[in-house]
Amino acid sequence: MKKFPPYTAAHIGNYIIEQGEKDYVEITPLKLQKLLYFLFGEFYASTRQKLFKDSFYAWKHGPIIPHIYEQLKHYGKKPIFSNFHISHCNFKTEKTMWAPTSIINENTISHLKPEWNYYKNIDARELVKLTHERNTPWYHIYDYRFERKIPSRKIKNYFCSI
């Protein structure tokens, strides 16, 4: 039986928004999506465990988690306000729930902090370029005609190889 991580992309997304506020880093929806991808990949490569259970899809501007996109698209290219909280769907109860960062344990934060510090000041467009490099999971999966899921194992293997 597969053990799922206790977090969703919404939990980690809210963590990124909070860290952005603390560190005076503007987080736009595009930057948030890329930071989710890089934190997920780095975490998976270093711990051999998924950071969250949500899946990435290969879209034009790189890896995207569609339900996160839907919640943030009204921001466009503007920064996300720190009082905005991303929600996740509890599939057992079929209810949308707030995803508090208070459940993220210290061990997870100790893995996320160095990656956050590395990626936080990289411009969103530069992060997109990084996801589009030759031999990245996005590069191998993207097809402009289809919305295609990026297998998590491809993300892990890629981050293990760099």
Description:
With 162 residues, the protein is mainly α. The chain is built from 7 helices and 5 strands, in the order ααββαββαααβα. A hairpin with a 4-residue loop joins strand 3 and strand 4. The longest helix is centred in the first third of the chain and has 19 residues. The chain starts with 8 loop residues before the first helix and ends with a helix.
Structural class: mainly alpha
So how many helices?
7
**Average pLDDT metric:** 92
Looking across the biggest beta sheet, what order are the strands in? 2-1-5
Shape: globular
Q: H/E series, N to C? A: HHEEHEEHHHEH
Instruction: Please report the total strand number as a whole number.
Output: 5
Measured by DSSP, the beta-strand proportion falls in 5-15%
Poorly predicted runs: none
Radius of gyration: 15 Å
**What characterizes the major β-sheet?**
3 strands, antiparallel
Helix content: 40-55%
N/C terminus separation: 30 Å
